[in-house]
Amino acid sequence: MRIVDLRSDTVTTPTEEMRNAMAKAVVGDDVLGEDPTVRMLEEKAAGLLGKESALFTNSGTMSNQIAVMCFCRPGDEVIVPDSSHIYNLEVGGLAALGGVQVRPLVTADGIYPEDALLSAFRQPSIQTSPTGLVCFENSADLNLGLAVDGQRFDRLAAICKSRSIPVYLDGARLFNTAVALKVNASNLARSADAVAVCLTKGLSAPIGSVLAGSREFIAQARRIRQRIGGGWRQAGIIAAAGIVALDSMVARLSEDHALASTLAEGLIALGLRVRPYPVQTNILQVDLTDLAINSQQFADRLRKKGVLVKPITSGAVRMVTHKDVHKGDIQLVLQAVQEVLIDRI
Ligand SMILES: *Cc1c(COP(=O)(O)O)cnc(C)c1O
Questions:
Q1: Which residues are paired to 215 by β-bridges?
Q2: ∠195-172-219 over CA atoms, to 5°?
Q3: Bond from prior residue into 248 cis (ω within 30 degrees of 0)
Q4: Residue 71, phi then psi, degrees to nearest 5
Q5: Element (H, E) at 217
Q6: Closest CA relative to residue 185, chosen from 336, 54, 26, 333
Q7: What pLDDT, on the 0 to 100 scale, is given for residue 344?
Q8: Confidence at residue 123, expressed as pLDDT on a 0 to 100 scale
Q9: Over 80: is that where the pLDDT of 77 sits?
Q10: Do the beta carbons of residue 137 and residue 156 sit within 8 Å?
Q11: Phi, psi for residue 136 in degrees, rounded to 5
Q12: Torsion of CA 187, 190, 192, 196, to 10 degrees
């Protein structure tokens, strides 16, 4: 039976081109700064993101946590989107590794309302924890994949900068937003003091993330990566796949977005509610609150029909399109959903 896995774009497997590049990669000891393939990936990523320098890390989580440790001192307060990965899905790293205090803010259409951000800054006093960093995400909300327009980000970042508060952009899926809005990723990251992207989501590399920023920031990030055991040796084997990801896998993300739209239309035609609508990138949520079954039962029944989805609340599942989901699969998914609905309504 064909399995259509819509749980996440992290399930993508490396392409033939990646495997070939990995086999042939020229490598050296990256802790000694001697791996030319890692160096090439870092330079390429820095260029694409419009930053001076970049650091290849094990994961998006590692990039995020390193950034916080660079920008903040223990006891600082960090403003985060309440739906963000850094706040919800990094095992409390902000507290456990960075020693920071977190201030989650509700976002609207993927970004903080200006007045909410303004009133979240701490007034300096002997009793308050200084606001040490403001974090943003783009695409925003890993259960919605919202493409946040660069100018909206620029405006809020300027407010942070006017108070000398650094701005960090978790751009795990920044290339999805860039493709959706038809702009360069560097445009979306220009107001960020540092930005991270994932190579392992829609870009399909097997391992890795890149953190980019000023030369000084990256030098410090490299030391912190080493401290937490993220220094690696012949990492060029992995970086080689990352180079292919950046060279050949960005433009095709538009295919994933088109499939997500087709999927949304089909689900709506079956009487379901989909968020966001229209779909903005490769992620959508299906609302099941009107049905007689919860999201786990819905997912279990779909699984029996070869379709994997991720329950996110008791009344909603997430579906994500990616390079290993093909056009014909959408029909299979809609057929399976329809069968589940007929069984259960
Ligand atoms: C996936 C993701 C991460 C973490 O990446 P890993 O490589 O899985 O650690 C961070 N932020 C966002 C928004 C993500 O979607």
A1: none
A2: 35
A3: no
A4: -80, -25
A5: helix 215-227
A6: 54
A7: 64
A8: 87
A9: yes
A10: no
A11: -125, 165
A12: 50
Give the separation between CA 62 and CA 230, rounded to whole angstroms.
Answer: 8
Ligand 1 neighbourhood includes 148 CB (under 6 angstroms): no
**Distance (Å, rounded) from C-alpha 137 to C-alpha 153?**
10
Residue 87 in contact with residue 61, Cβ under 8 Å? Answer: no
Atom 3 of ligand 1, residue of closest alpha carbon: 60
42 lines ligand 1 (CB under 6 A): no
Using an 8 Å Cβ cutoff, are 84 and 93 in contact? Answer: no
How far, in Å, from the CA of 63 to the mean position of ligand 1?
Answer: 9
Is residue 110 over pLDDT 70?
A: yes
Q: Is the pLDDT of residue 156 over 70?
A: yes
Which residue, 56, 48, 53, is CA-closest to 186?
48
Ligand 1 pocket, 142 CB below 6 A?
yes
Q: For residue 87, is pLDDT > 70?
A: yes
Ligand 1 midpoint to CA 198 (Å)? 7
141 lines ligand 1 (CB under 6 A): no
Q: Which 8-state DSSP code applies to residue 210?
A: E
Name the 3-class secondary structure at 305.
coil
Helix (H, G, I), strand (E, B) or coil at 312: strand
Residue 254 has pLDDT above 90, yes or no: yes
Checking DSSP bridges between strand 209-213 and strand 194-198, what pairing results, if any? antiparallel
Q: Which of 148, 170, 174, 176 to mutate to test the pocket of ligand 1 (most atoms within 8 A of CB)?
A: 170
Query: Of 144, 150, 187, 190, whose CA–CA distance to 167 is shortest?
Result: 190
Give the distance (Å) from ligand 1 centre to CA of residue 139.
11
Task: Give pLDDT, residue 343.
Answer: 82
Write out the DSSP string of 76-130: -EEEEETT-HHHHSSTTHHHHTS--EEEEE--BTTB--HHHHHHHSPPP-TTSPP
